[in-house]
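4.2 Preliminary Data

To establish feasibility before requesting continued support, the project team ran the inverse folding procedure on a target of 941 residues. The structure was first converted into the token representation described in Section 3, and no sequence information of any kind was made available to the design step. The complete token record follows.
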């Protein structure tokens, strides 16, 4: 059976019928405010060329303004009570012993909590965990049972004042007598989470029809026999059976390979890590029983899901619920605050606060204990290479990833890792599988890299070793097998646009770090006894997006030319608020005067959705899409590197539509004034000639117009002066047709449109604006990408390559990073400084993964509550070659190149580059990450 892999389907139908909850994005408008809007920038934040001097939020941050969710208390939130309560949780540190209860006697009467909440209290109040298993089956460990995972909460302790809360928490921490256990019992973690397999055999050449591929035929889904995946039987029946027959054919060719082929096999391991976002998980919740309103202030990357799932949780309980009021502050999560269970523990705290706002905020020990982790991966790879030509003939990879004791996105992370394993190479035959395993470990989720860091690092380490065996230059081997534009990936899909990996490889091959590596090694090793010099190369291309990306954006201007901009995107540290505003400026010639990010209430978009973009059949989607107000998904969380391209698509389409429907006709009206059609008539000026820069409108040599004058004319004429769009992408953009007054039938790469008309619009036109001053335009036709494109796995890639220069101390095993140089292609840079920041931060994160960061999975791991940064080693500035790092970014092919999502790819290439550099330095290869001094000393012993 195919597992449910949607990021959002687990909330389908979650809101109880008959309850007027304003968080349903199916039919009712949402009530929410985003605390992060404002802050506003200073008046000098833009340079003369319209580019930013600093981030939109910079002044608020450096002057201590409240920006992050963690900064807020009840007294800071309008209309909240001023008395702030606090809560913390007790956790199970054993998963093989029966939980018998808690003993709080050491607190005495003075520090006794004002309320203790246990599993049995939730049962009594009809509170069940939401999500049909996505978050597990219980919040707290029930008495008489074992914990589903190490670190699972067993109780929530609520205090009405901070002083007693703080004293109790300090006293109780690390005391192993508080949580009481009985006898031993079997582990009770869930069943394994899913298995998927991607098999492809090309048609003999890259451009021939595939004999079998997931896109053409099917992804293969399996079950489990114990801890091993169990696949369908091979045969000539359905598509999955034929896929297994293709897999068997590949396996037979590998086993029958002759001496002319190198069959290289090896196993690799990538460890569990903590993303270590500086802001730990936190939330503040006030349940007002008198009004039935649940007020939430939350750190999250997925605010819609928090609102919807909270509504489900409370509306099905004994607590009366009328409305959810969600507020979201800035946050940083690297994926760990995307669909985390933590917000719902905060909701529980608020429900049992006795009318007080309750703040539940992890300290760093607690964050290690229950924060989402990057998955540990075990990879069993085989690469078949022609010994004479160096051409790759086939590759297989069979992966397991440990998702811990809650499903979360473990299955999705596994198969994304499998679909990425080909990295930058064309593979005529491939067979990649992923099995997501349940265990008692802390749960892992959609952490930065989403399985691709693990799988592509292994591929790059493998390719480097194959080059060594074949006595070939490692970059030359890559050039022989590089994935080129128009070729198919291992899912059988042709990626979007130009793939420029060959260009990057040629630049890397000519870089002095590579060309001089042999001579420099000889000189360095001779001059530094006990130390060894090495240079390594890593090159990857990372997908961005989820295959179901949706967004909303609204742009409008008043008669004075003042621009207002609203977007569903909210800030998680990537600079999206800055880049989205700059995108508007790039198209309209002026950045918005007013911005609202993280907008939740969209009354002008009365869309309906079942939120099943991955699992709905084509037949059902065709039926639904006949409804002009239906969409496969309402909006996406801030994740999957989706800001600049996918969420930015909504921004760009709203801005372009405003130019088409308002700026261009209004400017033409002004240029055409006067006898004989004014100054415009003698020229031949087309729509594509228009330019908006520095607050002026220009076209084809006509007199420049101030934006304010054009805006006033658009209002006078009653033209469109506001545009709201909804977009949807399934590895291809949806397009729809709309009948627009004075413009006729228009086809746009959006699936929903709302318009606002200028002050001079006719009374008849103005009567159309019934939704908060907007007209929702029912589309005349829509063209959604076929659901079969779900099997494409990915069609959008961003590439990154890194050369790492190191020295290894053979006595201590310490690796010193001397310098590193990266080459990447990211399309058009919206804000180059933000791209630079992503590269620097991402590379630092990758260095930590390669050389330092490690979490044991089970009893000695973070679930025991004793882990902090005193035990978990992060890279520091001295470890990342902060002053000797360089980067080259390929220029876009033209000014029309779209920007690419690069926040994840920037951290990956340095991981295999370092592993390959260590091998060059000491002649020893490592297959398990991280490569620690202890491992190096052991290899050299």
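Position-by-position output of the design step:
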């Amino acid at each position: 059976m195919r597992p449910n892999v949607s990021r959002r389907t687990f909330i389908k139908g979650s809101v109880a019928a008959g309850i007027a909850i304003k968080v349903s994005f199916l039919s009712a408008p949402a009530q929410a405010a985003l605390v992060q809007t404002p802050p506003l920038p200073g008046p000098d934040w833009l340079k003369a060329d319209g580019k930013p001097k600093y981030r939109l939020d910079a002044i608020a941050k450096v002057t201590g303004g409240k920006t992050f969710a963690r900064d807020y208390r009840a007294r800071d939130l309008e209309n909240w009570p001023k008395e702030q309560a606090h809560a913390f949780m007790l956790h199970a540190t054993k998963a093989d012993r029966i939980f018998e209860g808690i003993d709080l006697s050491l607190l005495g009467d003075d520090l006794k909590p004002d309320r203790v909440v246990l599993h049995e209290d939730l049962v009594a109040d009809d509170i069940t965990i939401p999500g049909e298993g996505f978050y597990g089956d219980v919040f707290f460990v029930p008495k008489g049972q074992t914990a589903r995972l190490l670190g699972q909460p067993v109780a929530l302790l609520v205090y009405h004042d901070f002083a007693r809360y703080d004293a109790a928490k300090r006293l109780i921490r690390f005391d192993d007598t508080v949580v009481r256990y009985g006898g031993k019992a079997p582990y009770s973690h869930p069943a394994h989470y899913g298995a998927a397999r991607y098999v492809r055999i090309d048609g003999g050449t890259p451009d021939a029809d595939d004999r079998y591929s997931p896109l053409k035929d099917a992804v293969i889904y399996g079950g489990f026999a114990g801890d091993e995946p169990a696949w369908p039987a091979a045969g000539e029946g359905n598509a999955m059976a034929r896929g297994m027959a293709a897999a068997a054919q590949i396996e037979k060719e590998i086993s029958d390979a002759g001496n002319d082929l190198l069959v290289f096999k090896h196993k690799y391991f990538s460890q569990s890590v903590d993303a270590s976002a500086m802001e730990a998980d936190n939330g503040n919740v006030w349940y007002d029983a008198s009004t039935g309103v649940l007020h939430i202030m939350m750190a999250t990357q997925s605010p819609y899901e928090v609102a919807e799932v909270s509504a489900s949780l409370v509306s099905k309980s004994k607590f009366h619920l009328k409305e959810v009021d969600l507020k979201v502050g800035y946050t940083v999560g690297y994926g760990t605050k995307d669909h985390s269970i933590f917000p719902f523990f905060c909701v529980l705290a608020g429900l049992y606060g006795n009318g007080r706002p309750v703040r539940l905020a992890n300290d760093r020990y607690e964050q290690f204990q229950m924060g989402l982790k990057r998955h540990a991966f075990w990879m069993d790879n085989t690469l078949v290479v022609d010994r004479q030509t160096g051409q790759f003939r086939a590759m297989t990879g069979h992966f397991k990833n440990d998702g811990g004791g809650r499903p979360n996105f473990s299955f999705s992370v596994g198969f994304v890792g499998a679909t990425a394993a080909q990295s930058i190479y064309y593979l005529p035959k491939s067979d990649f599988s992923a099995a997501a395993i349940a265990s008692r470990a802390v749960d892992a989720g959609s952490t930065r890299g989403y399985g691709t860091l693990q799988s592509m690092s292994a591929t790059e380490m493998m390719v480097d070793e194959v080059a060594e065996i074949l006595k070939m230059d490692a970059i030359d081997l890559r050039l022989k097998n590089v994935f080129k534009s128009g070729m198919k990936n291992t899912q059988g899909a042709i990626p979007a646009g130009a793939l420029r990996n060959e260009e990057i490889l040629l630049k890397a091959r000519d870089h002095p770090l590579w060309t001089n590596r042999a001579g420099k090694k000889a000189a360095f090793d001779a001059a530094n006894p006990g130390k060894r010099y090495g240079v390594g190369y890593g090159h990857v291309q990372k997908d961005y997006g989820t295959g179901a990306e949706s967004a909303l954006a609204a742009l409008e201007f008043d008669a004075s030319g003042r621009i207002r901009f609203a977007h569903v995107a909210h800030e998680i540290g990537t600079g999206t608020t800055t880049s989205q505003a700059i995108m508007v400026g790039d198209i309209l010639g002026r950045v918005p005067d007013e911005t609202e990010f993280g907008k939740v209430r969209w009354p002008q978009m009365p869309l309906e959705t079942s939120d099943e973009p991955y699992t709905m059949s084509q037949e059902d989607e065709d039926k639904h899409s006949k409804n002009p107000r239906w969409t496969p998904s309402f909006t996406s969380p801030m994740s999957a590197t989706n800001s600049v391209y996918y969420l930015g698509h909504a921004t760009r389409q709203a801005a372009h539509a405003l130019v088409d429907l308002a700026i261009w006709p209004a400017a033409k009206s002004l240029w055409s004034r006067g006898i004989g059609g004014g100054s415009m008539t003698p020229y031949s000026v087309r729509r594509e000639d228009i330019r908006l820069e520095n607050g002026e409108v220009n076209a084809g040599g006509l007199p420049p117009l101030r934006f304010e004058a054009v805006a006033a004319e658009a209002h006078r004429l009653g033209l469109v002066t506001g545009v709201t769009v909804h977009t949807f992408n399934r590895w291809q953009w949806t397009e729809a047709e709309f009948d627009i007054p004075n413009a006729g039938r228009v086809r746009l790469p959006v699936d929903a449109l709302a318009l606002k008309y200028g002050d001079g619009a006719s009374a008849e036109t103005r009567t159309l604006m019934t939704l908060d001053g907007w007209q929702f335009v029912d589309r005349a036709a829509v063209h959604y990408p076929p659901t079969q494109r779900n099997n494409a796995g990915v069609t959008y890639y961003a590439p990154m390559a890194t050369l790492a220069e190191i020295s290894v101390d053979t006595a201590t095993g310490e690796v010193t990073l001397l310098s590193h140089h990266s080459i990447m292609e990211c399309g058009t840079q919206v804000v180059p400084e933000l791209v630079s920041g992503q590269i620097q931060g991402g590379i630092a994160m990758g260095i930590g993964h390669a050389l330092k960061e490690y979490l044991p999975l089970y009893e000695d791991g973070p679930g025991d509550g004793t882990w902090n940064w005193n035990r978990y080693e992060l890279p520091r500035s001295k470890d990342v070659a902060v002053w000797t790092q360089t980067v080259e970014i390929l220029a876009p092919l033209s000014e029309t190149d779209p920007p690419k999502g690069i926040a994840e790819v920037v951290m990956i290439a340095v991981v295999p580059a370092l592993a390959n550099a260590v091998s060059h330095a000491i002649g020893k290869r490592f297959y398990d990450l991280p490569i620690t001094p202890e491992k190096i000393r052991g290899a050299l012993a």
